[in-house]
Design brief:
Elements lengths: L2 E7 L5 H9 L6 E7 L7 H7 L5 E5 L9 H9 L7 E4 L5 E2 L3 H14 L4 E9 L15 E3 H9 L10 E4 H7 L10 H9 L4 E13 L12 H18 L6 H16 L5 H13 L3 H17 L1
Helix pairs in contact: 8-9, 8-10
């Protein structure tokens, strides 16, 4: 088998729908690795129900680390993977269309021939009742990840971790950056695992992203952590990958960084990193214009 589907498990609420979607795959050439993050919600009865229809390995970890670092939970789940060459990290509330695995195998030879490291599926958003609440999000068959980045910034698409399949060797080498709540960690992994080159899209199979009150995307009580992660993401791109962006793209990234900074301008680490970045990149005029803007805003208050 070539495909491993890794499920970092914690929430039982929608887990059966996830398992059902795995059991319903028309192509059974995959293995599922379920890593239980010391969840208080025991999935044993569900796993017993599906043990004949899904080829899976289950491991319960003794300590919960997802509450501290989701990335570390993803990574320890990935260590369960054996000989498979590709990894999908499927969230425990998302759902696969029945042809996801079949279409992976229909495409993987072409992907290998083109030396591509990241595969993406078309997606649709569902709610807590499994009702479809969005259009189908499709993508160019081949799209540079840097173009995807700016298309997403401009609101032209959506994405989440579950719809991507990574070449295991590359993902193990690059790794996920450990941002708060893993916010933007998946997007950055796509950029870096493609080396800012091409993503291959499978548009004739769907991954369903679940938007509910209990997932991180919808929650509103963690906005400060999301703000910090967002700042660190844009700072990382500008500081570490700056030469990859043209002047217009750099302006967009700087605007996003400044907006994130303004939303949490009392954060002293933001001031340090922001100043360091702008001075080192010789954005002197931009820096002082921004400082004047901040000071003027305080005076008006």
């Amino acid at each position: 088998m070539t495909l491993a589907i890794v499920v970092p498990y914690f929430k039982l609420t929608f887990f059966e729908a996830t398992l059902e979607s795995l059991a319903n795959q028309t192509d059974k050439r995959f293995k599922v690795y379920i890593g239980d993050d010391a969840s208080p919600e025991n999935p044993s009865s569900l796993l017993e129900k599906y043990k004949e229809s899904i080829n899976f390995k289950y491991k319960r970890f003794n300590n919960n680390i997802g509450s501290i670092s989701l990335v570390k939970q993803w990574e320890r789940c990935m260590t369960m993977v054996q000989e498979e060459e590709w990894i999908m990290i499927l969230c425990d509330d998302d759902v696969l269309g029945e042809s996801v695995v079949a279409e992976f195998y229909a495409s993987v030879n072409e992907v290998n021939q083109q030396d591509i490291n990241v595969i993406r599926y078309a997606t649709q958003v569902i709610n807590q009742y499994s009702e479809v609440i969005s259009e189908i999000y499709q993508h160019p068959k081949l799209e540079k990840s840097i173009e995807f980045l700016f298309r997403k910034i401009k609101g032209g698409t959506r994405s989440s971790l579950s719809e991507f399949v990574f070449r295991k060797r590359i993902l193990q080498e690059i790794k996920f950056k450990d941002f708060h709540l893993a916010w933007y960690s998946d997007y950055l992994a796509v950029l870096e695992c493609t080396f800012f080159e091409y993503i291959y899209t499978i548009n004739n199979a769907l991954v369903f992203f679940r938007l509910s009150d209990i997932n991180i995307t919808a929650k509103k009580d963690d906005m400060l952590e999301k703000n910090i992660a967002t700042f660190n993401y844009y700072y990382y791109l500008l500081n570490n990958k700056g030469p990859l962006f043209d002047a217009k793209q750099t302006e967009i990234l700087l605007f996003r960084l400044e907006k994130t900074f303004q939303d949490n301008k009392k954060n002293t680490s933001f001031w340090f990193l922001f100043t360091k970045l702008y001075i080192s990149k010789l954005y002197i005029k931009k820096y002082f214009n921004f400082i004047i803007k901040i000071v003027t805003g305080y005076i008006k208050k």
